[in-house]
Design a protein that fits this description.
Length: 136
Amino acid sequence: MKIRGIHHIAIAVDDLDRYSDIFKKLFDLETGEIEISATDNTSLTFIDLKNCELEFLKPLNDDSSMARFLEKRGPGIHHFCLTVENIVEALEELKAKDIELIDQTPRPGAGGSLIAFIHPRSAGGILIELKQDKEE
C-alpha cells in the first residue's frame, strides 16, 4: 500500500462556527466552505495547514454516530486520515491481512474523494480513515 501522507485530523465538535472562531482567534486560520455529508449525517469544514488539514465534524442529528461520540466523549479528536495512492488496492491488501474494515469498498468522501475506514478493533482503538483524492 502506498501511503502519501497524513491528509487530515478530524475533530468532533458541537458547533462549527464556535470552533472556526476559536481557531481564527488563536492562529488566524480560516475554515473553508461547509459541506454536508448525508452518508455520515455530518456537516464539516476544513482548515488548510499546508502540510495537513484539520477537519471539524458536527452531527446533523442526534441519531448519528458523531452525536453519540460527542455525547460520550465531548469535543475532541475523532480520527486521522491517510492519503493512499489507490484505495481499492489498499483495502484488498488490508483484507488479505484479516484487518477488520468498516467500509469493505470505497465510498464518496468530501471534495469528491473516495474514502474508507479501518475499524478501531484492528488499529489499537484508533479510528483511521483512508482517502484517495479525486482524480483531476
